[in-house]
């Protein structure tokens, strides 16, 4: 029996694009009209301007292209992908690492486009996840809001450094210098009021009991130079706060169609409304994109990879995933770790044995699994298992052996157990 070495052609009419900032190289591979069983290949170059891209779309339409593939090159793929998608083409975005050319061959835009077309034609790759337009717009907004929040945090840190330079130790005495009392003191400093006693008298609520400590903390050498910089920094922080509120209102309007899904995610321990919005923006609401929870966890890079070779096991990293999603999950885990819940106990239990970093990954893995089930079933709701779940489910003998080992390590003596009746 002879086995053919010819690869099976899975896509009959395919196009591949090698992208750049100003131009692209397109390769089309279709069945040959005059030679049955053979392929016809044509390569053209186009500008990435809209008119040229529309000409590219007309050419692909004339060739009856079934699938258009392109590498995820920086952000250059976005205008091309979105325009061709709007023109009705099925587009695939491919990870450059998965379709890398064979080493040793020349590398040109034309060769890369031809190679990419063949890889897609033979079914040797799979597309990356590209969300539909409403989710993409929501993601742009949530990422921009997070960037603004980070910039505001940096601005607040600059203010604290400026006060330290002026020997004003306000942040060492009160929890936040940007509350009502703190802002009044800062505004008074800018206005030229440097009397520590007068400044300390501006404290509100429970902060008044710290009047003596506040007077000492507000005793420094705050000068006009510091006042000028502080006024500019506070104006920048206030401007960012206004922008954050505006973007937040826009997000609430855009996420309205996905409000039921956001409400279900909000039920998870540690997930607030803001985190739920960010989760939907990064993951989407279509759970069918991920066949199982493990696929979602793997896509988010929250599943450590085992590395075993020659009988030796090496610690595997999770790899680099979506940094925006990882940041949101990190905040969720940090908030959960302080709660008396199943996820909180799971974090503390793992942190004691495996360290905080591994605990964050493991609990993030659990959160993603919960998210998948909530998105896959619109009728599902989150139910916390309780902090005593492990205590009630762990085998009694296993727990007994663990306690005996702990006692032996603590006392340095051999421990043996006897039945209660005999004792």
Description:
It is built from 16 helices and seven strands. The chain has four domains: 108 residues, 2-Layer Sandwich (Nucleotidyltransferase, domain 5); 121 residues; 108 residues, no CATH class; 34 residues, no CATH class. The strands form two sheets. A five-stranded mixed sheet has the order 3-2-1-4-5, with helices on both faces. It has a two-stranded antiparallel ribbon with strand order 6-7. The protein is α/β, with parallel strands linked by helices. A hairpin with a 3-residue loop joins strand 1 and strand 2. Helix content is 52%, strand content 9%. The model has no long low-confidence stretch (mean pLDDT 89). Helix 4 packs antiparallel against helix 8, helix 5 packs antiparallel against helix 8 and helix 9 crosses helix 10.
Secondary-structure content class: alpha/beta
Shape: extended
Secondary structure tally, helices: 16
**Could you name the ranges where pLDDT drops below 50 across 5 or more consecutive residues?**
none
Q: Number of DSSP strands?
A: 7
For the sheet with most strands, the description reads: 5 strands, mixed
Total number of distinct structural domains? 4
H/E element order:
EEEHEHEHHHHHHHHHEEHHHHH
Strand content: 5-15%
Please list the strands of the largest sheet in the order they lie side by side: 3-2-1-4-5
What's the overall average pLDDT, rounded? 89
Instruction: Compute the separation of the termini in Å.
Output: 77 Å
